[in-house]
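hey so i finally got around to running the thing on that chain from the lab meeting. sorry it took forever, my laptop kept dying and i had to restart like 3 times. anyway pasting the input first so we r on the same page abt which one it is
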Amino acid sequence: MSFLSSASPKLPPWKVLLVDDEPDIHDITKLTLSRFRLEGRALSFVHAYSGAEAKQVLAREEGIALVFLDVVMEREDSGLEVARWMREDLGNQFTRIVLRTGQPGQAPEERVIVNYDINDYKEKTELDRTKLFTTTFAALRAYRDIMKVEEARQAQLHYREGLERVIAASAHIFKQRNLRDFASGLLQQVVALLRLETSMLLRLRGASAITGEQDYEVLAQIGDHEADGGILSPSLLSQLDDAKSNKISRLHGDTYVGYFPNSSGKASLLVLKGVEEISDLDAQLLEVFCSGVAIAFDNILLTQEITDTQAELILRLGDVVESRSHEGGNHVRRMAEVCQLLAQASGMSEEETMVLRHAAPMHDIGKISTPDAVLLKPGKLDAAEWEIMKQHPTVGMSILDGSQRPLLKAAAVIAHQHHEKYDGSGYPQGLVGENIHKYARIAAVADVFDALMHKRCYKDAWPLERVVSYLREVSGSHLDPQYVELLIANLDAALALNQRFPD
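ok and heres what got predicted. didnt touch it at all, straight out
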């Protein structure tokens, strides 16, 4: 390609620094190279009139491709010192240096080039128009080639670092068992990987025509999506529909929508906002990352589906049991929610809390064997009837015992111990204090609270003040005082749950 052209450049110009204490040298060089072009790029000149000023410019300006450097300025070796400083102190090994001197005897060519990493050495008198063009061309072409090698090296380094981040991120999110936690962890890692601030992870719902729900479920999001017209704005829905229909990933302006199918026949959709472009490298890293987590995602989906189905069956079975005693249909739901509230307030782990929440509705499963005459008696039970009623914890435990599933094992413990009292006066085992499992102690508080707050066949609902007074009265005898105090401290939240699930 010709380096002399009258065509207008379409690319940024090559940045050239002129360092010389003679202003005429600056003017002549600019004039001589005014029509220079390399690959359609002209020259942009930066000026310095001393060695000290040259250092300031080099420290401040980025992307200087070539320096025409005078030797003798404020000192006889000013130019040589600038060359040394560039290479050693500044660490700039890329910028090409052409040394120019009007006093060649003061700087022998061989010594200067070897000791100071000078790319070319010219006497000012020999730099006529043609030689100045060819020297500039050779220097800039060398700079271009060096930068291509450096860019390839940086890309390789970036890819390696990216793969390391991918591996580290995958290892982290693989530890997540909950779908929401997994999705949130996945999104955080993708955002960090691509250095973005706003993103969203969705999945396609199954059987949306049956459920009547929207096709897309937001699993996790990072950043402000409201500024763009809401989480699922019409424009974003159109982009999601495009990805779903065509089964491809695509960049829409500054929004990237990634389509990632999984082995179950469904798909996940990744939305990245504020993206100028997705480079081939980033796309490869994203593909490696998303394909790696697809298996884990499928497994979590399957596990959660099983867990959710199991929990719902337990809840519905609890409803069946409670319906026999003509108690409110939402008793087991309220109790489960209050159990979760108390567990969280006590600092219980999320995993344990959810096990308790799903297991609590089975606390009275043993009543399935209690005769109606006893279960539905409106008045006080006689001694014989009371002995029959006291059998339901043991029956419940026998129904649930033997399973290795954490949820059912927890349900067996709660069913067996929820009538134990903190002072040891409860049944069926007469356990004392912390010998009663914490699940059962929490369930007992939730059960008593709900029973007192609502109408039963043997009593009317109590006013709130009387309920709180009674809870304090039996704290330390019937109920664990720790969980009683936590309930009272979170009474507003508990009452909100009552309103959410009324009889």
